[in-house]
Design a protein that fits this description.
This protein is mainly alpha-helical. It has helices spanning 4-20, 39-44, 64-76, 81-94, 100-109, 114-122, 135-145.
Amino acid sequence: MSIFLPSRILALQAIRCSRRTLSTTLRWSADPWPLPHSPQHLSNTQTPSDIPPPTPISRSGESKETLHARLVYQSRKRGTLESDLLLSTFARDHLRQMDETELKEYDKLLDEPDWDIYYWATGSRTPPERWQKSSVLEKLTIHAKNEGKVVRKMPPL
């Protein structure tokens, strides 16, 4: 009987050790990549109000065709997929009908941070006073609602 006792003790110790080593790490307290429109994402992407609006690059002498081509490209290459999809389909559908003043207003809008534009257009945040009465942002908001339930995909460059 004494022969079997040490082997039984070793087997029990092995079981106890394996239980202890299953997981000794602490669980993450928050998701490092929260989903858009979640409260955590809304709070993490808030632009501080004390930061002045960005100063646009001066582009004197730019033709309307060059301005249009640049805005199409900048609408497509934003940095976040949500903004890329929203702004590139908006540019495809609306830029041709805009006059030069609206194109310049849209150009100024593109100088704003991506998540701000996205959340203003989707109605998750109220835009700052400088964009409250913007006809371009109003068109973008209507486009973002997608009332026709159109399946949108990235347009070709």
